[in-house]
Amino acid sequence: MSFSQIVHHRSFYFGPIASTLTAIIRALALSMMLCASFTFTPTSACAAGASNAPPITRTVLERRPIPGSDQSMELILVTFQPGVSAPLHHHPVAGLNYIIEGTAESAYGHDVPKLYRAGDTLQDLPNVPHTVFRNPDKSKVLRFLIFTNLHADQAYTTAP
User: CA–CA distance from 14 to each of 5, 8, 112 (Å)?
Assistant: First the structure.
């Protein structure tokens, strides 16, 4: 099942942001293909940007208020550079993660870490220590999307 099919599947409700999710995935895929086509020379913009990139980046791609509540839906793009690990943390709410590119290793509490690859989904558990989250690949970037509902001014990731 493609990401577009998942977004529009009757068992998931992404409502008004379904078309936005699909458009973002298409744009990311196009930008990754364009970047890949220019990385044959070490002076390319893609190659230069990768060497100066911060270890972890989080970008809120979309934030929409949920009518009649103090919550908003958020779509967050997260990038982990090769070999980078997140420190121990937790999430105050659940989140749905979709791996766009690379491999993620994740575990909660005392669970055994599991690997997730491009096209896989995983759920962030609320209020459980996220003991392992890392990019185990030493040469490839990890990119994934997180979809979640948050209260106004609530952070998605917090230190213990």
Answer: 12, 8, 31
CA gap 51, 37 in Å, rounded: 17
Token pair 């068992």 is found at 11
Residues 6+ apart with CB under 8 A from 80: 55, 56, 86, 102, 104, 134, 135, 141, 142, 143
CB atoms within 10 A of CB 108: 18
Q: Any idea what DSSP says for residue 85? A: B
Could you tell me if 47 and 54 are in contact, meaning their C-beta atoms sit under 8 angstroms apart?
A: no
Angle at 33 between CA 28 and CA 36, to 5 degrees: 120
What is the pairing mode between strands 121-124 and 132-134?
Answer: unpaired
Q: Read off the pLDDT of each residue in 73-100 and give the average, rounded to a whole number.
A: 97
> Residue 148's beta-bridge partner residues?
74, 95
User: In the CATH scheme, what is the homologous superfamily, with its name and number, of domain 3-151?
Assistant: Jelly Rolls (2.60.120.10)
Global pTM value: 0.70
